Amino acid sequence: MSELEEAVYFREQSLKLLTWVVIGSVLLILTLSYSTYENFDQLYARKLSVYPTLSAIATLPNVLGLTCLILLIVGAGARVKRANEAIALKAYSLLMSEKFAAYKQDYQHMVSHFLHAAGLPTDYSFSRLAKVKTHHFVKMSWPISRSVALRRAQWISLSRAIA
Q1: Span 132-148, mean pLDDT?
Q2: In the predicted model, is pLDDT for residue 120 greater than 70?
Q3: What is the spatial distance between Cα 144 and Cα 155, in angstroms, rounded to a whole number?
Q4: CA 94 to chain centre
Q5: Taking 80 as the threshold, does the pLDDT of residue 43 lie above it?
Q6: What is the pLDDT of residue 33?
Q7: Please, are residues 162 and 100 in contact by the beta-carbon 8 Å criterion?
Q8: Which residues form the domain of 129?
């Protein structure tokens, strides 16, 4: 398995994890909402004002649950971001490798999609592409990783041919 294949697999696993975290978050928010709704009279009975106060809604289970959700979502999102950055940098390193020159014509359509996703002109020369800072590809990692994922079979065959 090449490095690009591993990066694509890691991205897929990260996206699945993020999906499950979002589903779990929705379920937990619904559970907390229902629990607060059922126990609202007991929570609010201590307050003598006309309007409910924040302390009646922001109970300890609600605050802890939402804090855990925020941490999980941020962690899963950071994992997806790291996976996207890894794919973008590995795809860029494949295009900049010396062995790619032999396959340049076979994968021209794929390269033009990569350049378009990176926000560069599709007729961008490889000598100028080599001078682009890798930070640019890190910033543009989300569209680049989507482009690589859409043409996953081509990118994997290229990475196997170069490796």
Answers
A1: 93
A2: yes
A3: 12
A4: 21
A5: no
A6: 87
A7: yes
A8: 3-162
